[in-house]
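Entry type: protein chain
Record version: 2
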Amino acid sequence: MNKTEFLQELYNHLLPLSAEERSEIIADFEDHFRAGLERGKTEEQICAELGNPYTCALQFLRTSDTQQTPPPPPPQYNAPPAAPPVPPYGNRTPQSVNDRRNKTLWGILFFIVLFCAIGVYPASIALMLCPIAILIAAIVAVAFVPTGIMVGLMISLSVFLFSLGLFGFLLTTWLLKLSYRRAGF
């Protein structure tokens, strides 16, 4: 039982009292929880120390000036005490399950991009070096006289291939860094 459940059950048992008395009692119990948490105790340990909310409420109902009778005790079963409720994911919350799944998927993406980088990096470097190859080919091919259109085509092709290689290199690097960070390696 946690603090909220304990205080709600205590409040329900204190309904015969006035609203002011109930508020004072609940405030006292909240102070008790606050002090216990400051000493390093868990809410469950504090609830175990306080005992059953019904018996706590019964003490206040007996000492109050009201003429109302206390509510009947909650039904008692001879079953063994129930274990604390277990969330459907064990100790993990749905958020932590999603985080773990996301990290796994990003880890898989990292290894896929890493495998692709083995081919992309050399290809990108080769594309960035293409302008040098085109320049050498133009110098070696002295046999033809380059015209203005031919020079413009070679420059355009050089810029395009260099840009394509640079884009592939930067994109692969960015994907590797992003997937590495998101995977939490």
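Comment: Residues 96-183 form one domain.
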